[in-house]
Design a protein that fits this description.
Layout: H1 11-38, H2 40-55, E1 59-62, H3 68-84, H4 86-97, H5 103-141, E2 149-152, H6 153-170, H7 173-182, H8 188-193, H9 195-209, H10 214-248
Parallel strand pairs: 1-2
Helix pairs in contact: 1-3, 1-4, 2-3, 2-5, 3-6, 5-6, 5-7, 5-10, 7-10, 9-10
Amino acid sequence: MNKPHFKEMSLVDHLDELRSSLIKIVVIIFVGFILSYNYSDRVTDILLVPLKEAMANNGQIIFLSVFDKVNVQMQLSFWSSIILTSPLWFWQIWNFIRPGLFENEIKVIRPFLIVGFFLFCGGVLFSYKIVFPFGIKLLLSFGTQEITANISFAEYIVLTIKVLVAFGVLFQIPNAMVILGFLEIVTKQSLAKMRRYIYLGLTVVSGIITPPDVFSQLILLVPLVLLYEIGILAVSFIVHPYLHKKYAA
């Protein structure tokens, strides 16, 4: 079995590799920012669809400052570049971590990097297609309906893009659990024992990300709980048989 390369590297070499990886990531995100900036108007129109459908012409979207549009365009371009270039900068992170792993660990973990990308996209689509439409309609339905809604353009767009990224990250839960299982950091038994604490943490996260109502929190909490349970099953049926075979050989 090959030894991890990090053990054969000096601290200076390790820091050089880290600096090189960080520079590449910054360049990737910067290029993505430029490309995203050119299409920020189209992205804005897409993000406004759930809000416009929920309002059903019973309100208007406004901006409160002359700098709102510029601020939104800059933040939207940044977060869009994070999403669009995620396969590239994530690959740089993987290239930095990979020398510290054994060859057999690299082989079993690599496919789950691809799975992680699709889970990220799934989280973004879930929040855009389900959470936002339901949450916005629910919030607008509270109170009297005889008043016109004036929604801040800047607040809505900035919140939307951040929540989309957050959902993409949270949907990595089962993938992270499997990878930690292959690295022998967690087992199905330890994950089961941590269940109550994980549920509490997911409840807190759901309350922070979603609007302050129980229904919106449940829309996020239920999928997160299911993802955690799927992660336990994946560790049980994928990781444990692999480790058993590994040590039996």
